[in-house]
Write a structure and sequence with these properties.
mainly beta, Immunoglobulin-like, about 40% strand, 9 strands
């Protein structure tokens, strides 16, 4: 019984290695923040003066690698904004809500950095009219 279970685990492990899912081809390629751009009116009543952004990992999609995990996955991230007059909801989270209270002359940058230590950064721009 022990020998047959060991064989099953060995077979599964070798299968994963052979398909590339345990190799470097299945690593994260980028961190995407969506929507990439947004515009809201600071004079609108809540929640119309806000925009929710989400961060997701994009996996590498190397043809022939055998990696089947190419679907974007939500990423728990630390969020920052380039202008402190734009308020962000709590961080870290997979999503953040940016609220425009004053009008801002130029678009602000919303930045996400994953909490898992990956050296990736995702950005979006928000215009507060």
């Amino acid at each position: 019984m022990f020998l047959s279970r060991s064989f099953v685990f060995l077979f599964l492990g070798l299968s994963l290695l052979a398909t590339g899912c345990a190799g470097s081809d299945c690593n994260f390629e980028s961190l995407n923040v969506t929507p990439p751009t947004a515009t809201v009116s600071h004079t609108a009543a809540a929640p119309a003066n806000s925009q929710t952004f989400s961060a997701s990992f994009q996996f590498k999609n190397n043809p022939g690698s055998g990696c089947v995990a190419v679907t974007p996955t939500l990423a728990n991230s630390n969020w920052t904004v380039s202008d402190p007059s734009v308020q962000l909801s709590s961080s870290p989270a997979t999503m953040v809500t940016a609220t425009c209270t004053p009008s801002v002359v130029s678009p602000v940058t919303i930045t996400a950095t994953p909490t898992n230590g990956q050296l990736l950064t995702g950005r979006a721009t928000l215009t507060c009219n």
